[in-house]
Each structure stands twice: as structure tokens, then as C-alpha cells.
Amino acid sequence: MSVNSAEPAARLEVVLVKAGRTKIRYPAELLQDDGNRIAVRAPWAGSGVRDFGFVRFEPGDVFTEYYWRDRWYSVKEVRAADGSVKGWYCDITRPAVRSGSELVVEDLDLDLWRSADGRDVRRLDEDEFAESGLTETDPRAASAAVAALDALEALASRAGGFEELLS
């Protein structure tokens, strides 16, 4: 489908699973699926405002989300209603699975934030990850999760940030 096409945009339902339960489910516009990387766009799916202290997610924000079938993370570009980039929120996950109109992603608790100017790169929820017990129940997944967080932090700390990853 071309940008100028009158065809309706393809839709996916993004399903974020955590500890075996659906944490959130929301509709998204499918932008691209090249067989490995899946890109979708969706408005902020939370109810009301979520203030993390270093960023606020709020109604009107738009997330362009990138998922991979062979990587243990997702990267979400967050834009305010006026189009300005707030930053990138990254979830450490098992590789994404697309089945029909659903995109299922299993959250492994670890997260990373990179501000729009690149000055604020922070690891998040390491305490939740430690409490999850994943290192005991699935050491291979736990190791892959930590390696993914390290790789994302290294990318986020570079001048170009996630540009090469998302282009």
C-alpha cells in the first residue's frame, strides 16, 4: 500500500503479556512487516496520564513501535501531540510473535529510556526483573534479557541513538 493509497491501513492488535497474563491490549496501524521487523503506530493506550518523573505519557502522544522476531527487545519512539519527540521507551521482551491480526510480545520487566536529546539514558525496573525469578526459572531467557538491555543501552548512549536500528 502506498502513502497516497485510498486503501484502509492494515490493523494489528498489540498484546503485551507479563507473567503469563495479558497486561495490555491495544489496536495499532501496521506500518511495515519485512518478515523480521514489525513496525506499528498507535496512540497512547494507557488511561489518563502516566508520569514517570523523567517523562509523561499522556493522551495525544503517539508511539511508533518496532518489534523483532529475532531480538529480545522492542523500541518505541514517543511523540507528543504536537509531533515533537519525547524520547524512546524500550521494553526487554521475548522475540515478537505475529499470528494473523495479533502481535504478541512477552514483557520481561527490564526497560530502558532515552530522552529526545540523548542526555538521559536510564535502565528501569531492574528490581522487578530480580524479583521475577526468571534467572532461576529460565536462565537462558534471563541471560538474553540482560544482554539485550546492555546492547540497547550501548546504542542509546551513542550520538545517533537508535537511528541505525530503526532506519
The average pLDDT value, as a whole number, equals 93
- Continuous helix count: 4
Order of helices and strands: EEEEEEEEEEEHHHH
Number of strands: 11
- CA(first)-CA(last) distance: 19 Å
Low-confidence stretches: none
Q: What is the 3D shape?
A: globular
Question: What percent of residues adopt helix (DSSP H or I)?
Answer: 10-25%
**What proportion strand?**
over 45%
| Main sheet properties | 7 strands, mixed, barrel
- What strand order characterises the main sheet? 1-2-3-6-7-8-10
Radius of gyration: 16 Å
Name the structural class.
alpha+beta
Short description:
This protein has helices spanning 126-132, 134-137, 139-157, 163-166, and strands spanning 11-18, 21-33, 37-43, 50-51, 56-57, 62-68, 73-79, 85-93, 97-99, 102-115, 121-124. The chain is an alpha+beta fold and 167 residues long.
